[in-house]
């Protein structure tokens, strides 16, 4: 099952866990209230997984590809890692299914505090449009992930501040309704 926690304020290596002291774990229900959805799947059978197909059909995830993030396989690795870790939002959902390796998604809660979500093999997550977030590898420096999308992919990140965007306004309205 997914592990998530409130982060400390340390500015050192983002690949470290950065757990707040004392520990402040975050459960799936709290993530759901932020619009974050989570599934645990069998990554070894992702090519023919009826559960994955069911999720894709229900949520209209029609497009997919696979990305490997590590120094040896991702062109412009250092630049991309910095870009992924820059706080941003998207106009559409961000869907990631970890096929191998591990990393962290950080999301902001209702009070603008960072929650770190540890992602490993078999974890699938959907971040809602308009949520401020970022991604980093962990200290293993490797992840292989399926990227899913509704329709054609649009990868445009809108770095913070982007509160003027309709996706952000709609997300804040969603938070107000779930409070």
From TrEMBL:
Q: State where Ni(2+) binds.
A: 88, 90, 94, 133
Its EC number is: 1.13.11.53, 1.13.11.54
Pfam families (alphabetical): ARD
Task: State which pathway it belongs to.
Answer: Amino-acid biosynthesis; L-methionine biosynthesis via salvage pathway; L-methionine from S-methyl-5-thio-alpha-D-ribose 1-phosphate: step 5/6
Any GO MF annotation of the entry: dioxygenase activity
User: Keywords assigned by UniProt?
Assistant: Amino-acid biosynthesis, Cell membrane, Cytoplasm, Dioxygenase, Iron, Membrane, Metal-binding, Methionine biosynthesis, Nickel, Nucleus, Oxidoreductase
Q: Can you state the subunit structure given in the record?
A: Monomer. Interacts with MMP14.
Give start-end positions of Basic and acidic residues composition bias.
12-22
Catalysed reactions listed for this entry: 1,2-dihydroxy-5-(methylsulfanyl)pent-1-en-3-one + O2 = 4-methylsulfanyl-2-oxobutanoate + formate + 2 H(+); 1,2-dihydroxy-5-(methylsulfanyl)pent-1-en-3-one + O2 = 3-(methylsulfanyl)propanoate + CO + formate + 2 H(+)
Cofactor detail note: Binds either 1 Fe or Ni cation per monomer. Iron-binding promotes an acireductone dioxygenase reaction producing 2-keto-4-methylthiobutyrate, while nickel-binding promotes an acireductone dioxygenase reaction producing 3-(methylsulfanyl)propanoate.
Organism equals Odocoileus virginianus
Name of this protein: Acireductone dioxygenase
Q: What does this protein do?
A: Catalyzes 2 different reactions between oxygen and the acireductone 1,2-dihydroxy-3-keto-5-methylthiopentene (DHK-MTPene) depending upon the metal bound in the active site. Fe-containing acireductone dioxygenase (Fe-ARD) produces formate and 2-keto-4-methylthiobutyrate (KMTB), the alpha-ketoacid precursor of methionine in the methionine recycle pathway. Ni-containing acireductone dioxygenase (Ni-ARD) produces methylthiopropionate, carbon monoxide and formate, and does not lie on the methionine recycle pathway. Also down-regulates cell migration mediated by MMP14.
Q: Subcellular localization, per the record? A: Cytoplasm; Nucleus; Cell membrane
Which family does the record claim for this protein?
Belongs to the acireductone dioxygenase (ARD) family.
Q: How does it sit in the membrane?
A: Peripheral membrane protein
- Positions of region (Disordered): 1-22
Coarse class of the primary localization is: cytoplasm
Binding residues annotated for Fe(2+), in chain numbering: 88, 90, 94, 133
InterPro entries documented for this protein: ARD (IPR004313), ARD_euk (IPR027496), RmlC-like_jellyroll (IPR014710), RmlC_Cupin_sf (IPR011051)
Q: Which domain of life is it from?
A: Eukaryota
Q: Which cofactor does it need?
A: Fe(2+); Ni(2+)
